[in-house]
Amino acid sequence: MKIRFLQLSDLHFHHQNYNTMKMRDELVSYLGEMKKKAGFNFLLITGDIAHRGDSYNEDIKTFLNDLINEIEIPKNEVYIIPGNHDISREDKMRSLLIAGILSSANPSEKIDEIDEKSFETLLNAQSNFFDFYEDFLGVEYPKEELHFLKSAEHYNVFSINTCIISDKGGEEGNLLVGKKKFYNAINKLRKIDNEKKLNIAIGHHTLACIHPSEKQSIIANFDDKGIDLYLSGHVHSPAYNVTVNSSANPFVELVSGAVVSDEYAIPGFVVVDVNLDNGEAEACFHIWNTSNDYWAVNNQIGRRTRNGMMEFSLERLTKKKDSNGELFQDESVQIDENEFKQFIIDFHEKLNFEGPTRSNLDNKVELENKFYNMKCSDTFQKRFERYSRYFGTISNIMESTAYVSADKKDLIAEIIIDKYLEIHNNFNNGDEIFQKILDETSSQYENLLPYSKLKTKRYIKILSAWSIYECDIFNENKRFAEK
What we know:
Strand 1, helix 1 (18-37) and strand 2 form a beta-alpha-beta unit. The strands form 2 sheets. Strands 1, 2, 3, 10, 11, 12 and 13 form a 7-stranded mixed β-sheet that branches. The protein is of the alpha/beta class. Helix 7 packs parallel to helix 8. The protein has helices at residues 18-37, 58-70, 92-103, 107-112, 116-124, 127-137, 179-186, 212-225, 337-350, 367-373, 378-387, 391-398, 411-423, 430-445, 453-470, 478-482, and strands at residues 2-8, 42-46, 78-81, 148-151, 155-160, 198-203, 229-232, 239-243, 251-255, 268-275, 280-289, 294-297, 310-313.
């Protein structure tokens, strides 16, 4: 079962310059042509429909109606959340209330404990948006819940109101969502059968805009409750972020451009295709060419989109068989983390390392650059993301002397680094080098450890991937060597 959805963000509909008007009209036609090739299952609009709290006029409704009619999506498959420009900015009492919350010793706790009257003061600034939402979609926005879950046949959408204390420019990094209300809402996913459903969270702001006291809790709950993707806007610039080592599984955040043309915005939108049977997904960013007035695929977001499509796997949905129909014994099967911890401890005890001691094993090269320069395949990158779910376990052991003595804690990295330095000139790409490191290291230690050969190889594979992520290896440029 495959599903496809579209994300728009930051319409700022008061803008009526030529480029913006032309882009909107062409967007409707462009999406109509896309729909002829493959239909859309639903539409996400992640905030800033109005601008600086302006009213929602009939032109906005006409544009959105034209768009959803063109792509033939019913309104019950349209999901809209407010942005910071969907807030009335004239309430001085609200501004003082927000300043008081942020200046408290624990802002996150303060907003959770806020009294009903103060909560209404914060919420009423979005009343124009709530009226527009009900008028356009025909259903009331569940504003008292603040955050809420909607379930469809093949997907769930978790809507997060990131604007409850949004008040002024420069507030990025200080926004709060209210952890108690957030948790009560996302916890409803536990009661829904979502084994073969896509779980999406949407918010206007990127995760980087959230106050540190809440950001990590949000990410942890995304992981615990099986959220597969987070989609946002606000920054008016398209982006993607694949988080490694922040939660148990790699996590993908997609950020749309804006549907407005000015000196600040990069006009664009995102289309995502997901195969629910195996978790394989593609995100295609689109951009408005302001010089020649047309929409096109955007391959300038990052190296993962250089072919016009960002491919990734959604771990929770990943099928357990490879292209040959065989089980991914080493990547997809859950490992016993307690046993893995003990393996790392046992492995250290068996290491007999005589190489030079390195005072700094920190890696300074971005993972994407490593994969690109070392000519790693897409399959390697997808499997690497699966290995990364256990990086947190490794780091916890390496950073503590409770498991491994300080004089030994770098030995695994040292072994893998030396093995890499020994062989990297003999191979043309990162896939081959990784496999050689794995084969030789496993062969050397598999008979010394009280684990099956399969488990030994699986655990060393994870440790080798962690060494690439954490240490100063896989930095050579195999592409440069071709020239």
